[in-house]
Amino acid sequence: MKFHLFIILYFLSINWIISQDEIKLDSTVLLKREISSGLNKPWEIKWGPDDHIWVTERPGRVQRLNPETGNITTILDLSDSVSQQSEAGMLGFCFHPEFEQNNLIFINYDQRNSSNNLIKTIATYKLFQDTLILENIILGNIPTWVNHSGCRMLISNDKKLFFTLGDRFVQDSSQDLASPSGKIHRINLDGTIPNDNPFANSSVYSFGHRNPQGLMLHPNGTLFSTEHGASMYDEFNVIKAGQNYGWPHVEGVCNTNAEINYCDKNDVKEPIWQTDKCTALNDLFFYDHVAIPEWKNKVLMAVLGGAVKTPSLSVYTISNNNQVENVEHHFNELGRIRDVCANPYTGSIYLVTNGFRRSETTFNSIIEYYNPDYEITTSQIKYETNQYLDFSPNPVLNSENISIRCSEDFINATIDIFNLNGKKVYSKKIENTNFYILPNNVGSGTFVIRAANNNGTITKKIIIQ
Fold first, then answer.
1. pTM across the whole model
2. Which residues are catalytic?
3. Distance from CA of residue 288 to its chain's centroid?
4. Domains of the chain (ranges plus CATH)?
């Protein structure tokens, strides 16, 4: 693996900035940089121990993205066997706590078995050079469905694997301890059941869940989760061993006569926060960097927007006794925000989008927001390729040349322009590292420029006026 000094001044490069979008906090101004626009139904993003952003795509791929250049390489492609229908497909993953020694990740995905039933698999894969290779099936044949299939994953400090499973639209399964559905589970890293689980010989850690979509371990040891409600309330929960969270008898806090009666009889754990309407709360990230001081030690929550179409990155202030003290909402113009992670060196945050409508599948983006005033000189960051593609100006007039600068790796490849419906509207063979293109017949609007070779793919948006 190649190491080189990463100069933070690259943030100022105009070639990276699609627009001068910014957000003003109390004393910090964050600027926007769109890193990649070529993802297909991304579900989870994490900053990897190799200093790349790792992404799962529901059709069955794991992508590895260079955060400096935007170069994407596919390191696992199970699209021929993964069943991507509605909410099912390749979903959550997490790194083994000893990844730098064993190169292992845990990942889950949905497939059809010989009886055409949808089942979930949790497996370990090992990174060998640029490819993930199956190491072991940890759990298999977990019944799932095209909706409410989960599945977020994390590994706790005591090396236990937690994962979420929705109710599969079988509501009563959430209260049935013999069913894996509608639960948060806890297992050893080899798939066996810990002796100290709350229910003997069972992986069930908590139950009474409808569709848990986010999972986060707070530095204070508290396990948090988000959950999609049915029609009224989404939930932000503190997860406790053996607790019942009420579904399908309770949605949100216990506030109707029937719910209060059920909660009293069954010791239901109420959420620490509920939304007024179902806004589709998603994954969680604890932000602990000084680059954005207003958000330090707060919880960042990705929000898809739900039926009310109010997507955002929500910032939660959590008290010492795990209560919500304040909530702020940002970035409601980016579309559906599926997940969030951060750069441990620069404090930048990365948001992965799922379009503006649930049906949008192509050209989803990873967007960075960074503090240009945060001073850091150099850092050792690991990259495997220096492949790059830059262009200017952006936006560009329809009658104006676009100046392209790229690495030698792209010579003899093609540079293509697509509209947002995925139709190719321009193509040109790359013969030099510096050249011009004049796509004067493609019309006006937002387009995607893409170049690909054996080292990966770079995809970025451009506005043609």
1. 0.88
2. 148
3. 18
4. 3-382 (2.120.10.30), 389-464 (2.60.40.3080)
